[in-house]
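Need tokens for this chain, all 386 residues.
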Amino acid sequence: MELPWGFEFEESVFEGGGRGKKGPASLLPAYSARCCEPQWFYEETTCEDEAESINVKKFRGDLAYNQQEFKKALREYSSCLTLLPSSNIAMRRDVQESQARCLAHLGRHEEALEIAEVLRNGATNTDHVTTVLGLQLTIYRTVDHTEKIIECLQQLISLHPFHPEYWKLLAEAYMSLLPFPLLASEADLPQSNGSSTNVVLSESLGNETGFQHCKKHTWRKDFSLPPPSKTNGSFASSEESQRAEACIDSLGKLEPQPTVESITFGTMGQEDIWIYACASFVRARLLLQLIELHQSSFALESNLKMQQGIEGKVASFGLSRDVLFLMTEVMGEDLTPEKLKEDAQGEVKCIGASSLTSLMTALMAGFESKWFQKLREKLCCLDGCT
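Here are the structure tokens for all 386 residues:
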């Protein structure tokens, strides 16, 4: 069989290396791999090679961070950064991010956010922005700053709409704004016939521009309950809440004015938050089910465990079968093989910092409208509007 043009092999390809050649000049130099003992970088050695000195300090910092010795890790990272040349942009960004994470764990959130802002201003591609957003998300989660957490996740989803974990985290952030306990009473739970009387829609949905007043209101009996203060997943005392609020206030003073209109949760009806939370969980579950087909071993086990957790969260909303089907249909409309293939190729856009800011502004404009407005309209019609 004749190979197509351009794919012919030269005869020399099949000849043994050095065949017909004699002398030491034809021999490749021997490669001797370096054998390192575990934690070799902790040995007190004087490194003449500056590159090795940098690596030693970076490795020491990484190990200390992994052992949750954040002060020690911060010292190593700071020492490493002083040795790094300005031309080594990739490693400098890596070390600066590590510094910010240490500062966040040490409660020095303002300093951590300052570093994050420096990294964001120096971003030249979408991978840089993703890393910075992940860093900011970590910082805000350490102080339970829900509004900023949601803002970061919305930007991450705008860049990576097929990432299931971002959607799950967004759903949990929305859910944290709702009063507890989440489960509706037995009378409010959907009946087996899936009648529309159990569709969960609030009168507050009708108060927003462009939406009609809906008849049914069976999600909650009382939407006036304020969401409880939470710290690290548990209910906090009033004293702890005051400390957290003071920390958040200081962060707010530091933060520059966002280029996109930020979320104002005071003007959002709790029904909206219900819809956003449940729809985000449904979207996360759909994405996990899609990637499940290509997973095995511990990755598959982790996926199934996450799906199981989401199932429980979705069940707690007490949605009827019709509503759940509608949510699944709307939130999965863009999950076509072509779209997923494009996302899997993972194109990185390399553009200037100002252009990246414009890109993020465009992506963030009307996040809720883009992802949830169609669902809200269909839910309103399903329930029967006047």
